[in-house]
Design goal:
alpha/beta, 13 helices, 45% helix, binds S-adenosylmethionine
């Protein structure tokens, strides 16, 4: 495996494929195509009668994934499944997928390493780039617009809510005083000066502020809620739902939604506790350290 490929290794790959229970001839939906790591694994198991439907709202990611999946189809030849790619947010899934038509649905939330590592996308404070943070670069407010246009109170509230950042008021004040802000490193510097790293903290002082802005710009939590609400209608009986979260706000929504569904008899929960990466995967792929996988079967 080349170093380039290694950066895009899918998280909890085997576990996701196993819980999805991918069977030849089925219809499976990958709601977060990314670099098509999981999707390629699904496609290889589907056979010529199978159908892979995949969503990504990032046009760049979708085009790269299309090339990757064409390579996989080329390798599979007559055994390649039908592939449908949709360049939309997964909250729109009910407009594209018929009720009770899917055998398995996967969602691997958050940004991909491709998005994170590309400075011009503005997701990372480790490289200097325009403060964009939109997954769908065709529409919506950039993070730069948010930090420059929201008032101090709004900024403090969103950094507190989506970043779980206790020092949000001080950060919001520094942002308002430091405007205009256009780049990732400018924002990271402002935040670090406003709330210097505490001794016991292992993360960069701007980590939570960046997480908050990313979630807000992409309405990530609303997207997850909409998907989890739609999923039971789209799945066939005994079909599987697999979701992978990377922080507590995402995981809480998944946990509560599945628990509520189980109480109503919609889901049988297959993961009493969330599945996490083993030590070997964590050593190989640092992103897997915070991953939590939950799976359920439609009743
Ligand atoms: C963590 S990556 C997925 C990686 C993928 N499983 C793989 O193996 O390469 C998440 C991807 O989902 C996309 N995404 C995130 N939220 C989305 C949403 N609400 N609708 C559609 N795509 C979304 C992002 O643009 C990103 O490319």
């Amino acid at each position: 495996m080349t170093a380039e490929n290694q950066r895009h290794v899918p998280v909890l790959f085997q576990e996701a494929i196993d819980f999805l229970n991918v069977r030849a001839g089925g219809t499976y939906c990958d709601c977060t195509l990314g670099m098509a790591g999981h999707a390629a694994g699904i496609a290889r198991r589907l056979g010529a009668e199978g159908h892979l439907i995949a969503f990504d709202r990032d046009p760049e990611a979708l085009e790269l994934a299309r090339v990757r999946l064409e390579q996989v189809s080329g390798e599979l030849g007559s055994q390649a499944p039908r592939v449908t790619l949709i360049n939309e947010a997964f909250s729109t899934i009910s407009s594209y997928v018929k009720p009770a038509s899917v055998d398995g649905l996967l969602a691997d939330f958050g940004v991909s390493s491709l998005q994170f590592d590309e400075a011009r996308r503005g997701f990372s404070f480790q490289a200097s780039g325009f403060l964009d943070m939109r997954m769908d670069t065709r529409q919506g407010q950039t993070a730069a617009q948010v930090v420059n246009e929201a008032n101090e109170r709004e900024l403090a509230d969103l950094i507190y809510e989506y970043g779980e950042e206790r020092r949000s008021r001080r950060i919001a004040r520094a942002i308002v005083r430091g405007r205009p802000i256009t780049t990732t490193d400018q924002l990271a510097r402002l935040v670090s000066q406003a709330v210097p790293a505490m001794k016991q903290e292992r993360i960069h002082p701007a980590t939570r502020t960046f997480q908050a802005l990313r979630i807000f710009v992409n309405r990530e939590l609303d997207e997850i809620k909409a998907l989890l609400e739609a999923a039971p209608r789209l799945l066939k009986p005994s079909a599987r739902l697999v979701v992978i979260s990377f922080h507590s706000l995402e995981d809480r929504i998944a946990k509560d939604s599945l628990r509520e569904g189980a109480q109503k008899g919609t889901w049988e929960i297959l993961t009493r506790k969330p599945v996490t990466a083993g030590e070997e995967e964590m050593a190989r792929n640092p992103r897997s350290r915070s991953a939590k996988l939950r799976a359920a079967e439609k009743q």
